């Protein structure tokens, strides 16, 4: 079970949305992170056979997704960024409809729908109309439809965007429990979504891979490059223009900011232990500095 991307690119006119991406992914949870517009959704749509690559190849266990898309879709589960539902259907009816679209036999579909409603904790609300569901509940319906065929490859694109903190935690925990015997690609711009669940982190920006590592290794690389500074508001504002600032706390007569920089920004800066968010900002900042 492996997903192999070899020099994959996607061009729209004169613009490259994805450029020369090569990856070898195996079972487990992989976090694909990057700012909005980095190329994450385009890359995932190509893997999901919804968009042809301009150049390069994508293979699932040796099978070319462009040449044998139907075989890939048989083992694929996909929750897109903009997942739509039929508001007048119940969750149960909607999932049975999706099962029919995926050509599951009727009895198997009924059994699978019941199993998944319980898995995503919607059993008690299964016969309510989807228009009455919260955003988090709709996302759980989305992950249920992606799991109908018990996929070996599961792609979820920005699944927690717009969810409140409690629903985000619930959704992350649900994904973490699904990693056995499958590859899950979690595409997001929210670092907190991957920090607790992903064993591998791929940072993408401008359609290119910046970093391919583990969360722990990315944090280790930022050691000695994160600074706490307590200063006046004017200095804090100036530093915020010059450096990435991951946190800012206002006090009665001062401000404490957390600055990401390879070198100490000012003499009063104190080095602190980095977080994954700090390390991510450093990786993106380093790329921007290199480009400049």
Task: Provide structural commentary.
The model has no long low-confidence stretch (mean pLDDT 91). A six-stranded mixed sheet has the order 6-7-8-3-9-10, sandwiched between helices. Strands 2-1-4-5 form a four-stranded antiparallel sheet. Helix 3 crosses helix 4 and helix 8 crosses helix 10. Strand 12 and strand 13 form a beta hairpin. It is 34% helix and 29% strand. It is an alpha/beta fold and 292 residues long. The radius of gyration is 21 Å and the shape is globular.
Portion of residues in helices?
25-40%
Amino- and carboxy-terminal Cα gap: 40 Å
Could you give the order of strands across the largest sheet? 6-7-8-3-9-10
Shape descriptor? globular
Main sheet properties? 6 strands, mixed
Query: Structural class, judged by helices and strands?
Result: alpha/beta
Summarize the structure.
By secondary structure, the chain is α/β, with parallel strands linked by helices. It has ten helices and 14 strands.
Topology:
Elements: E1 2-12, E2 15-26, E3 28-33, H1 40-47, E4 55-60, E5 63-64, H2 69-74, E6 76-79, H3 91-101, H4 106-119, H5 135-146, E7 153-157, H6 165-176, E8 183-188, H7 192-195, E9 200-205, E10 208-213, H8 215-221, E11 226-231, H9 233-242, E12 245-250, E13 255-260, E14 270-271, H10 276-291
Parallel strand pairs: 3-8, 3-9, 6-7, 7-8
Antiparallel strand pairs: 1-2, 1-4, 4-5, 9-10, 11-13, 11-14, 12-13
